[in-house]
Amino acid sequence: MRRNIVHVGSGHLTYEIREIVGVAQELQEMGVEIIWENIGDPIQKGEILPDWIKDIITDLVAEDKTYGYVETQGVTETREFLAKQVNIRGGYQITKDDILFFNGLGDAVAKIFGFLKREARVIGPSPAYSTHSSAEAAHSGYDHLTYDLDPDKNWMPDLEDLENKVKYNDSIAGLLLINPDNPTGAVYPRPLLEKMMDIARRYRIFVICDEIYAHIVYNNAKTVHLSEVIGDVPGMALRGISKEYPWPGSRCGWIEVFNQDKEPLFKNYIKTIKDAKMLEVCSTSLPQYSIPLIMGDPRYKDHLSRRESVFEQRCNEAYEIFSKVEGIHVTRPQGAFYMSILFKDGVLNDKQRLVIADNDIKNFVEEKVKGVETDKRFVYYLLGATGICVVPLTGFCCNRKGFRVTFLETDDNKRKYTWETIAENIKAYITSA
Fold first, then answer.
1. What's the number of domains the chain is made of?
2. What is the pTM of this model?
3. Are residues 136 and 233 in the same domain?
4. Distance (Å, rounded) from C-alpha 58 to C-alpha 52?
5. Which of 140, 209, 234, 302 measures 20 to 30 Å from 198, CA to CA?
6. Host domain of residue 91
């Protein structure tokens, strides 16, 4: 072509959580039975919504209004309901006009970073969730900027590292945090969140807080929503129903905007995001109508509590298995439904391998591991030897070596088998060379 039509950030659009699926599918075609531990879809792993939630959605399907367009920002009564929920907590008070719906948080993230000035950077955690890190890197055309999460301190943010990077890089205009965190399962206590807001306030940057797992907190952890600590700092919380009902196929998420009246530039930025949404007309109608009916139902609180108990039990079960394995570092998660398993420094090398009986599968894996990170090498060998598909930690914009598992499998025997098999293969892999 006479002109280069490829976006400068195209090479940064990576998503290891999905990319490894292609490798697993090839192995599946070769006869390997795959156990999918790579993606956070509760429905795929066997969770069933309560009948009362299904009944509400079924009744909505019968209503003609759910087939039409809605307001660009979202259904009015739904935004009013959500604003009320925010305001009940105390802290920053919002109105329906501070809420904007998207077709899932992936859509929101694309617009949040896509309409940010290219020279304005957002610093995020490492390990990072790929949707955020890839979108931020793609918008700028450079590698994603990160601050460290410390595995020796329950994966809490290294505030000294964060402040130094913000202080000495004036291109940083925003701070991203994920609470509870994916992929580590860390939950940030209020005092830490207040210190992060203090950094944002002093250096006049805005805050993005992904709160998609806000109602999946356990193991005695305590946290608060962004609205409760943000004070006068411009920012936004990202929320949704995909992990909470759960209804990931609904593609329904929203942002709650704080202090857009305090900074003219931030207000104009939010207006740009709204205008971009207007070009699409609106987000999907049906799931929006369901929110006040389901979240406002007296049974919803018990539904959330039950799920927290389930994930706490599975989390502790996984911790008991992996904490006994030498050569790895494991932190007990307190939220979401993920655990990051870290290989200790110097444990991995490019000579280790797992026994794979089938020569075709062995040759396939050994071709794939050429030149890859050492944790990805382990992940490919594990996939070929056992069919278990996990995500390497280096796929989360991270230099630390490890992998992520989920707590989503509903079959108790299969779940325990999966974790015990991974543990056994870690031992075998480490001692193989």
1. 2
2. 0.92
3. yes
4. 10
5. 140
6. 62-295
Same domain, 80 and 217: yes
Q: Does some domain include residue 1?
A: no
CATH number for position 20: 3.90.1150.10
Nearest to 295 by CA among 88, 39, 70, 94: 88
Residue 179 CA to residue 125 CA, distance in Å, equals 11
- 307 CB contacts (<8 Å, ≥6 apart)? 216
Contact 157, 128 (CB under 8 A): no
Q: Residue 61: beta bridge partners?
A: none
Closest CA to 283 of 35, 66, 135: 66
Residues 248, 116 share a domain:
yes
Collapsed DSSP state (helix, strand, coil) of residue 125: strand
* Residue 338 falls inside a structural domain: yes
Query: Is 63 in a helix, a strand, or coil?
Result: coil
